[in-house]
Design a protein that fits this description.
mainly beta; tRNA methyltransferase activity; single chain; 3-stranded antiparallel β-sheet; S-adenosyl-L-methionine; Kelch-typ_b-propeller
């Protein structure tokens, strides 16, 4: 599936693209990793069982931790709709990138 993406980072020769909008809980957008040399890509699903649903992956900020730790911190995220109310993510989300980048 393709989603609109909202955050990206370049690590070495890899482009990480994070986030998107979805309508069903089983379709949570993940992380797309594109190798800039080979132009091959791999999509990783996010483990969201410990995060209150819905996890909103638009209108958020992402920050890479130091290069040895290889984690991505997602902060914020949310939106407001006059029909459905306001939802804000209740906690920051940390993505461990070691397996994807190793």
């Amino acid at each position: 599936m393709q989603y609109a993406r909202y955050s990206s980072h370049v690590i070495g020769e890899r482009l990480l693209v994070v986030g998107g909008v979805w309508l069903l809980s089983d379709g949570v957008p993940g992380v797309l990793m594109i190798n800039l040399s080979s132009l091959c890509s791999v999509e990783f699903r996010l483990e969201t069982s410990s995060v209150s649903w819905p996890l909103v992956l638009h209108s958020f900020c992402s920050e890479l931790t130091d290069s040895r730790d290889q984690k991505l911190l997602l902060i914020g995220g949310g939106g407001n709709c006059f029909s459905f109310g306001t939802h804000l993510n209740l906690q920051p989300v940390t993505l461990d990138l070691r397996a994807a980048l190793g």
